[in-house]
Amino acid sequence: MNLRLNANAIITNNHGQILIIKLKKGPFAGGYCIPGGGINPGELSFETIKREIKEETGLEIKKSLEPFGFCELIHYGKKDHRVVLLLKGKGNGALKETEEGSPEWASAEGIEKKLIPFAREAVKIWKEGKNHFKLLDEECLPSWCL
């Protein structure tokens, strides 16, 4: 089974809105996700998030990030296991569209309905003060479970 470590974040602005990205690529193109991606060898999780947010949204995160949980995405049929570190932080500023997607600030109320499964569960545990969830096989985000 292949193992991959990722980091994703819930970034809120001064208005309490959450940074989300409307995806342009992959099986969830058109769906919304929270920013993040794979951790490179030698890279710390908070460095990954800052890099990914800059790449995906154009926003520079200058304040500190803190971990709030993790999740496991396991697709037994594809022999893939992702462990995702979940961080939270603050950010403000103009966003720019990238090849990855179209970023926007969205109200935290009812946001889960428009998010892809992984992001929906991450926001849910963040709101509930929990620290872990798992998605198995078909529940997994297919683009991460290949």
UniProtKB/TrEMBL annotation:
It holds the Pfam family NUDIX. Transmembrane segments: none annotated. InterPro entries: NUDIX_hydrolase-like_dom_sf, NUDIX_hydrolase_CS, NUDIX_hydrolase_dom. Gene3D superfamilies: Nucleoside Triphosphate Pyrophosphohydrolase (3.90.79.10). One of its GO terms (molecular function) is hydrolase activity. Keywords: Hydrolase. Residues 2-128 form the Nudix hydrolase domain. The keyword Cell cycle does not apply. This is NUDIX hydrolase.
